[in-house]
Amino acid sequence: MSDFNDRGQLVKRKYKDWAGPGLGHCDNDKMSKAVEPSQQPSKAKAPPLPTEALSKDEKVTSTGLAAETQAARLVALFRRLWELYITQNAKSSRLEKEISQMQITHTCLVNENTQLNCHCRDEEACLCHFRAVIQKLQKDIINVVKKWENFQMTEAPAAGGAEKPTQEKEDVAVIMSAVPAQED
């Protein structure tokens, strides 16, 4: 006899069906020894009393409720964990995008810094060149003025008159005061 019906569902059997051949049954190959009454379980095969059945149902119901409660709690914890995972994943991808944008910005700033440093060195070189040219011009102008004064002194006593300030001397004095002497 099969434990399942045509639809594949478990068949509930009556006590006689599942008990099998008993002691001394003709289907039994070996004859079983008679069991002493002290060895036989007295209540093992007897149906439970109604009060015992209720307490078992209550136990099953209470364990079922406890299992349902634990299952609901686990489902809630799993949902919470999943939501946290989704938010952390979103934060992680947002941070990765920000990092890549910052890396691009950093690269641009490094390139700009390099260009500005190069431009600064070029400007410093020009400034040094202009300072050298200005110092050379100052020395040349001072030499021209000294020669001019020497020339005026040598010519003035020969002319025999007192020196009067001329427009040329005033222009040279103005040029000298306008060009500051640079000290290195």
Care to describe what's here?
- With 184 residues, the protein is mainly alpha-helical.
- It has a domain of 63 residues.
- It is built from three helices and no strands.
- The longest helix has 110 residues.
- The model has no long low-confidence stretch (mean pLDDT 75).
- Label the overall shape: rod-shaped
Largest sheet: none
| Secondary structure tally: strands | 0
Summed over residues and divided by their number, the pLDDT gives a mean of 75
- Oligomeric category: single chain
Separation, N- and C-terminal Cα atoms: 119 Å
Rg (C-alpha, Å)? 58 Å
* Helix share bin: 55-70%
Number of helices: 3
Could you state the order of secondary-structure elements as H and E? Answer: HHH
Secondary structure class reads mainly alpha
- Low-confidence parts lasting 5 or more residues at pLDDT below 50? none
Strand content: under 5%
